[in-house]
Amino acid sequence: xxxxxxxxxxxxxxxxxxxxxxxxxxxxxxxxxxxxxxxxxxxxxxxxxxxxxxxxxxxxxxxxxxxxxxxxxxxxxxxxxxxxxxxxxxxxxxxxxxxxxxxxxxxxxxxxxxxxxxxxxxxxxxxxxxxxxxxxxxxxxxxxxxxxxxxxxxxxxxxxxxxxxxxxxxxxxxxxxxxxxxxxxxxxxxxxxxxxxxxxxxxxxxxxxxxxxxxxxxxxxxxxxxxxxxxxxxxxxxxxxxxxxxxxxxxxxxxxxxxxxxxxxxxxxxxxxxxxxxxxxxxxxxxxxxxxxxxxxxxxxxxxxxxxxxxxxxxxxxxxxxxxxxxxxxxxxxxxxxxxxxxxxxxxxxxxxxxxxxxxxxxxxxxxxxxxxxxxxxxxxxxxxxxxxxxxxxxxxx
Length: 398
Fold this sequence. Notes:
By secondary structure, the protein is mostly helical. About 75% of the residues lie in helices and about 0% in strands.
């Protein structure tokens, strides 16, 4: 029970409930303090975005580059394609379904939030796109030149950034989200849009199952093997992922589930499952795209343009490869895209973080279960191209 109370979803849910209640009872002067605190916390989170991008993307590139091979390249490509195609499916569903949801764009009767009492501006050290380009170039160059010092520095920097996220950003999030929902409750927006929030969670979960069905059918068709012989063993891994919200924490169970399958090569399991746990985040990407489109409709009255969403989906696939397999890793790594490409303000970012975290366990479960399908594809590729079966638990690419 103590573990449940200390979990991030519980704290976020508590923050949402407290914020909604306080928003109904606070007066204008008190809301001025709340808005100011929300602004300061938003500035802190925004400042950390470029650091998170560099800390997640660049070290991931160097780690993958050390063991570069044909199988590794194939694994990265199919993980990226899976995430991007899931994002495009979610985007299509968003344009088709969101306009028909019960989203009330009429702002009549809503109260206006007071302005901030004072502004504490914390500028980013660089723009989001600059951080992304720098991460890719430095990561690739360090790999090409075999620069051990740079690779070690990036690995250390990643640990530093992960500590910043876990010890600064994550503890601040419940308060930031509570302040945001307090403002939405004060305005009256949250009571107008509650049915829409419930609908999008159900739609996204249905999208997870549809995408998993697509992945396993494609994997079975390509490999010529029965995909059910993989999927039927994944129940424990799915439930573990729901409970932990972490692909990394589920890795041990996922490996055991995959090893029970008679159609997966053991060397592909030892190589593919740990790798995909870190670079294949199809469920999280699918969720984030649909939620971003819904939040845009709720807060800004319109969906992002098709061109903007295509760019967002393509870049999100890259960010997903570099995101850590920890709770909220995908949305944390892609905060720069949410603010830089979709142009979300503090309220949009906080709302996105809140609703994403509340269902993140099911997105993680989709990620983990989808890894089995991609490992089946790797098995088919290895057999079609005559790659020898090592028959043990060592990585076949070393």
